[in-house]
Amino acid sequence: MVVRLHPTRIRRIGCRSQISQRVALIAITPAGFSRLISQGLGFRSVRGLGGLSIFEQSVGRPYVLNNSLSVSDGYSDHPLNGPLLAAFGNIAVIIKCFKSIKNCYHCGMITTTSPITAVQLLEVAPELAGQRIDNFLRTQLKGVPKTLIYRILRKGEVRVNKGRIKPEYKLQAGDIIRVPPLRLAERDEPAPLAKGLLDRLEAAIVYEDKALIVLNKPAGIAVHGGSGLNYGVIEAFRQLRPDTKELELVHRLDRDTSGLLMIAKKRSMLRHLHAALRGDGIDKRYMALVRGNWPTAKKQVNAPLLKNTLRSGERMVEVNEEGKEALTIFKVLRRFGEFATLVEAKPVTGRTHQIRVHALHAGHAIAGDDKYGDEDFSREIRDLGGKRLFLHAYSLRVPLPDGGELQFEAPVDEVWKRTIERLSV
User: Fold this and answer.
1) Residues designated catalytic
2) Helix %, strand %, coil % of the chain (to 5)
3) pTM beyond cutoff 0.70
4) What is the span of the domain harbouring residue 95?
5) Is residue 272 part of a domain?
């Protein structure tokens, strides 16, 4: 038997994700239907639950119950307001109000039609060693929403070698990963991204070979989907390079940060660059426009950083003795009187929001930073046309597996250029 709930007429009634406004079909067993009738169970706290249809093809006579319910809050009875098949005449079936569809689900009378996977045990092949567990699961679990993958990682439901791990865990060859039962998404294939975005990212490539892509990422584009975003740079490049099956981000940039970003096209290159990042093989340098006159003697900020997650899900980082060690080296590039300074920042460690928080800790917040910035300073920069975060990854030196080296410098965008010109007047 199938209960069809027209999604346009349903509002969520305290159910979890199993049953929501997106659910169009609910399966119900004949036994469950009999329990509904015999126990007088129905639905409660639903207004305008129009177009409810119940279909059953049982061993006995087939019948259809059509109705157009108008249910108000309360426990009073409501008729199904629709004719049965002509053979059954004007038989009326009364279903009283049940507390919620969620309760029916827990009673075992209602199940959703979305498929659920069984427990999976995945063994890590040698060529996948060194990959983060979250990236591994996103490529292995086709059809599972990214938000669900990150949720089961945070809750410790994914086990590696029978133990709990963190989302940033790096896989080892031979690891056995236990994945709990998961509800698959209705659509496995992502929707095509806008051609304008794809063209913009294609034009941003500054280097590409068989194993590596380096691009000058525009400000305002996330490096990957999540947190309400359906796409990012990596999802776009998987559409731009559909035949390259091992595309992975080598590192990350904040959404509003522009500059040089690396994408590995082969697992061997990803492992090589991750090893270089853990050491001192990769040299990354940023430019930042900061508030005030940065002292020449202030050459580094060495302050531990602690990451917190607010109730809204937003990540915030603060200087805290309980945090992880973090070191950033700064150098003055240009001064604009007492008002602002253009500095170079070289992060020795790679903590979340490290340069932004260290600049604030030094008393010189970055222009346009809506999390850690100075609103008055950012407003004055916006008045000059600077409507962006003034943090740009402009220089990158990368060692190659064969002993060679690549060096890149990425220009800033027009917004940055015009703002600096107006500051110079």
Assistant:
1) 254
2) 25, 25, 50
3) no
4) 2-112
5) no
